[in-house]
Amino acid sequence: MTDNADGKRALFSSAVRRRGTLVVECSRCHGRTRLSYAEFAQRHLPYWLWTPWRHYSRYVTCPACGQRAWLAARWFE
Ligand SMILES: [Zn+2]
After folding, report:
1. Distance from the CA of 1 to the center of ligand 1, in angstroms?
2. Calpha distance 42→33 (Å, rounded)
3. Which of 27, 34, 43, 44 fits a disulfide with 56 by CB distance 3.0 to 4.6 angstroms?
């Protein structure tokens, strides 16, 4: 699970913050992925769970590992 963690971290840190995007962090693979709002919304389909009292609050398909997992979302203004 940690084979390409460094690569993902480098990708994340080199990314430029842009309006209309967010970063999701996966509780399963610990990958961080930047998504647009539209992409993020699509990943909730066909159903979604949201538990706002938890750090990993959204049960969606992880873009990094492709599995349904609990993800934390950070929003950029
Ligand atoms: Zn993942």
Report:
1. 9
2. 14
3. 27
53 Cα to the center of ligand 1, angstroms: 20
Cα 71 to ligand 1 centroid, rounded to whole Å: 8
Please give the residue range of the domain that contains residue 66.
5-75
Number of domains in the chain: 1
Going residue by residue through the chain, which has 77 residues, state the pLDDT in tens, using 9 for 90 and above.
555 555 555 555 545 555 688 999 999 999 999 999 889 888 888 777 889 899 999 999 999 999 999 999 987 64
Distance CA 26, CA 59 (A): 10
If you average pLDDT over every residue of the chain, what do you get? 81
